[in-house]
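Researcher: Next entry in the queue.
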Amino acid sequence: MPKVMEKDATGRTVQLNGVRITFGDSLKDAKPTKNEPDGKKYHSSNFLLERSHPKFEQNKAIVIEAMKAVCREFKRPETWWKQLFDEDPKQNCFRKGERFKDKEGQVYKGYADALVIVAKGPKGGQSRPKKMLDRHKRAVEVNDINDVMYNGTYCDAVIAFYATDKGGTARITCSIEAIRSYQEGERLGGGGIDVDADDFDDFEDDDDAFAGAGGTASNDLDDL
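Model: Structure for this entry, 224 residues:
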């Protein structure tokens, strides 16, 4: 189930369940971002927290816990993350899905009714996530990453959130520490901790991404 990872005493690192990989092609081969087409290359992915998924409320609540932990460590009020979320979302890696639009102004497929985490690999995206596993918790070979971690698949993801003011702008960002792909779901276009394979739950062959019940709602984002 979604949880704060006890291996990180700061409370900033979480495991999310049943989130969806999008824009994850660079998990294999680093690529420049949309805003820097000729700039530095990164390993990155967006993760969708879909409202229809039974773990949505639990995932959301766990992310909010991590956001508050980031604020405390960065010596800001616990509400600082929410201020960025509402007023300056580009400075928060946790955003409303409707803010993601194509050149024609259309919200990306699957984003309209979701929350989104914009994440890079460790070392500011210069490295791939430390562990990338298939549904049976086997390590994924580099050449197979885009087949196993394909855009649209559901996954469990271990993500470390942190704040920085590097470059002069205070913001909340995050690092993908580990991913375990479910290898199911319709394809869509377009400083951490050590994570062991046993940190993820086991799957039976007939398990699917929507198994399990939802959790308790968090009051912080009830209006979304």
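Model: The CA atoms of residues 24 and 45 lie 4 Å apart.
Researcher: Noted, moving on.
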